[in-house]
Design brief:
globular; alpha/beta; 8-stranded mixed beta sheet; single chain
Length: 296
């Protein structure tokens, strides 16, 4: 058989493998947290945009929530302001919050919208301040190893989510638009709050009763102690892996956000390798996938 025939057969196999997934997820909502290498590597940016457009074209409702930490850090550096973190959270005074809004709600958000639209989608950029659809309050960090009853640490305009109104996103979905959301919430007095993008994606997936929550990372997924990828995990197995220290470090918060989602009605959560071209399509539409699937 010629190489051309083999290549054609491979492509046909991929398409037939995708068919049952396309049928199963038609009309379903998939919340994708976009960040890491996939946001900065030019080829990965293009493949991500094409993935999102294709998902919409085959009848799914993708909703993109994005981060932008490195971009915020670079702009702060350019204006001579040093980034400060406590327990991994960016200390966000008023000047830093202005930069966060400029980068997340402006530069990064509009670049993603433009990318998706260039590939044939109809993306619309939002922050949680639009229509006040992400309502937030000030987050106070608990001291590590300290008295839980002690006063929390104030790190400025960093927020936790109170409520999400799904009606704006649902309206856009119904009009064949693709919402692209910057994780900025609004407080009772109209003040802006910087919200962790993984948290915002998880809470949005729960509120929208999404079929899937997909978290793009700069890692292969959840690995066992021998470095092998783990997938098809249920909640009990994940809790056991946390208890024995297999899941630890920077992967632990992402796994906890995934657990929160599947424990709150989201069918599956996926922690996938955003360094792989077309990672979202490979995870959603193929048997093998490119990351860790967690189900309730």
């Amino acid at each position: 058989m010629s190489s051309t025939a083999v290549s054609a057969a491979d492509r046909a196999q991929v398409l037939t493998e995708a068919l049952p997934y396309i049928q199963r997820f038609h009309g379903k909502t998939v919340v994708v947290k976009y960040g890491g290498n996939a946001m900065v590597d030019e080829e990965l940016k293009q493949s991500f945009a094409r993935d999102i457009v294709l998902m919409k074209l085959v009848g799914m409702n993708p909703v993109v929530v994005h981060g932008g930490g490195p971009q915020i850090g670079k702009l702060l550096e350019r204006i001579g302001k040093k980034s400060e973190f406590i327990q991994g959270m960016r200390v966000t005074d008023r000047e830093t919050m202005d930069v966060v809004e400029m980068v997340l709600g402006g530069l990064v958000n509009k670049e993603i919208v433009s990318l998706i639209n260039r590939h044939g989608g109809k993306a619309v950029g939002l922050t949680g301040k639009d229509g006040r659809f992400i309502r937030a309050r000030k987050m106070l960090l608990q001291p590590v190893g300290g008295d839980p009853s002690a006063a929390g640490i104030d790190i400025g305009q960093v927020g936790e989510i109170d409520t999400i109104d799904p009606s704006l996103v649902a309206f856009l979905d119904s009009g064949d638009f693709i919402p692209v959301i910057a994780p900025i919430g609004v407080g009772p007095d109209g003040e802006a709050y910087n919200i962790n993008a993984d948290v915002a994606a998880g809470k949005l997936a729960i509120t929208l009763k999404a079929e899937k929550l997909v978290l793009l990372t700069n890692t292969t997924g959840v690995l066992d102690k021998q470095g092998q990828l783990l997938t098809g995990l249920d909640v009990q197995r994940v809790n056991a892996l946390i208890a024995d220290g297999t899941i630890s470090g920077g992967m632990l918060p992402k796994v906890n956000y995934a657990l929160d989602a599947v424990n709150s009605g989201v069918k599956t959560a996926h922690i996938i390798d955003g360094r792989v071209a077309h990672a979202v399509l490979l995870e959603v539409f193929t048997d093998q996938g490119v990351g860790t699937l967690i189900r309730s």
